[in-house]
Please model this.
Amino acid sequence: MRWSDLMDNERRDEQDDALQLALDRITSDEAARVVHECVYLTGRPPLSDFRYFMTVVAENGHRANERALIEEWRAAAAHIAELRRQEVGIADNPSIEPVPRRLEALRDRVLEDPIFRHAFQVVPTDIGFVELDRLVVWQKFVNRDHLNLVKERLGPSPSDEDIFKTCLPFEHPKPPMKWMQTHKDTFVLVSPSNDLRFLDSVVLDPSQVVGRSPTGAEAAIIGLVVGFGSNFLNAVHAENRLVLVNGTHRAYSLRSMGVTHAPCIIQHVSTRDELQAAATSDLKANPDLYLRHPRPSMFRDYFNPKLSKIVPVPRRLRQVTVKFTVDASDFPAM
Model:
């Protein structure tokens, strides 16, 4: 092995150690929460998805009694078939109430927010109050740890203003995040929030970036933007149904605290083509499951013991790796 290869390997080992140190630090405040408590919707997801979650994702899933799990799923599926007869159309025509006058100033702060303007510019969008229990949902499970965090932040008697800012946080608090450069063309970012994501690529004029020493006569700076989503409670209003797109954990926490109606950004979709631009991936892939099913998965199902199961899940971190390539070549001028 060449000396340069040995040095590269040593640098990689040092980078791996530094990354692990970053992971340890970022999770130091969560050291006591090694396992999350999740609420999983049973019966509605396919049996294969249910078995995978319970035997692979769940804590000690390899010890699970699969025969008992299958019977549990069958019982939930039978209850769903019963609800399909008893509650046909229950998701149709949900009410959307206007924002009360006392909260209009907060509503206007959200509407003027640059992140809101960028995230919700494709279809007509407004803000209203919705009944949580009547929302159609696509998310299979909810992490109950968020409930304790929301309770700690809001206290036992939250005001309407506190609830509004919890659902539509125009100040955009950022979860903890660590990053490091692992190779000359690779950056790794880690956060306990699963909302960490690649956001955008931008081209900047060098004058827009301050606090750095130029390495040459710079012509342009290309930036790769990583961060968190808009973090608004929002739903798609399509075909006379409201489908919750984002904010499920906060909505679950508020409902657990007795809040029945919450402020929500609502995207009004008039065609299936518009749905492709406004919806989540699963809603776009299977629209009839949420918009045409007589009795789809609904927010209230998270609280129905016949349709939900509390499952311990090992704590996880979200890692985003960003790589770039540079290629330079010469070609004849035309």
In short: The two ends are 46 Å apart (CA to CA). Residues 35-173+230-314 form one domain. DSSP finds eleven helices and 13 strands in the chain.
